[in-house]
Amino acid sequence: MKLLSIIKRSGLTALPLAILFTTPDTLADNNDQLVKQLCTACHSTRNMERSSGYSKAHWQSLISYMVDLSDNKSLVDELTNQLSQTYPINEKRISKVVNGDYQLQFKYWQVPTLGQRARDPVQGKDGVIWWVGQWGNILGRLDPNTGEMKEYMLPKGTYPHSVSLDANLTPWFLGNKNGTVGYLDLETESFKVFNMPDERAKDPHTGVFDKQGIFWFTLQHSNMIGRLDPTNGDIKLVTLPTPRSRPYGIKLDSQGTPWVSCNGSNCLIEVNKQTMALNEIKLPGQKTHARRLAITPDDMVFYVNSGLGKLGRYNPKTKEITEWDNPSGADSHPYAIEYADGAIWFNESAKRPETLIRFDLASETMQSWQLPSKEGVYTGLIRHMRMGNKGLIIHQTATNQLAEVTWQKK
């Protein structure tokens, strides 16, 4: 039977057809093949193999966050029977918890379109939270006070990786698949799109606005950093000195200087904001790579060493580099990071349950929490976190949820 027929019969209407057609056309009759074919419409079987495993009831819950199969209960029963037998509960990726003085509160929102890979939420001063659905080609808006959400379908082929807000709280998206940067005009609800001036600049990734309104952004696989002037649409691009450095996260220091982390090499990049000249800082360890970074008010550059499972700090004044081991070890793969309230916050994305960690800057000690999910289904992962009006604004791409994290001392 054709895959599309199975998908339509199964109710997998929430998934983009471009993704669905990437799987083979036929399905074998046995349950194992059914699981592999349907689940790999969006991700590889490695996601399941490396999971902490679930009971049948929890597999049902997890699937419900990804696709709507409510009209086909027999298929759900068939799938979850196989999943719970093949991938039962295990502790092979168990995370380590470090106790401390703080307690957390989580507020969750489920985005409307399932299967979209909701990610990178950011909150404006008006309280509105914006996110992008990378696989669903969506820009989303959430009013956290009422829970009301609205989704905008982006121009065809955009597949946004992130969203940032300018000084007017206009949401800007980065077209990760079509080499574009653009924004949503809030009055007309129409999109303005800027194309990259170089055909080699294919994948705008993460961006940030400086106080002059200039938009700085990374292009990971293109190995570039970009600068866009929204007043005239002028875009300038520079290539990193080390091939395949894969520039990823980007933040500004107190002087408006952009700093970039390298996901493919052991480096940080300091960008001259006038000339766009690049200063490469080599980090210790050939296996070091840093997905994202955070900068404190005194301009210390903190980064997650995703390759070696460490938190790092670079002092631009003394050139000193210091690293601390993550609680869950070298294979914990820290991913997102943010400065907030006298501490560095980051996550251990490779562990289950995934952890959120607070590194106290005064004492240089860590406290960690296993992230809760609805109905006890522990999933991941947080790919970006930013400070909002009350707390950290995060997401979990596996369950297509957004969340606000607040804290207080016990």
Automatic annotation (TrEMBL):
Keyword Lyase: yes
Molecular function terms from GO: electron transfer activity; heme binding; lyase activity
Alphabetized SUPFAM superfamilies for the sequence: Calcium-dependent phosphotriesterase (SSF63829)
Signal peptide range in chain numbering: 1-28
Keywords: Lyase, Signal
InterPro entries: Cyt_c-like_dom_sf, Vgb, WD40/YVTN_repeat-like_dom_sf
Membrane-spanning segments: none
Keyword Coiled coil: no
Protein name, as recorded: Virginiamycin B lyase
Organism: Thalassotalea agarivorans
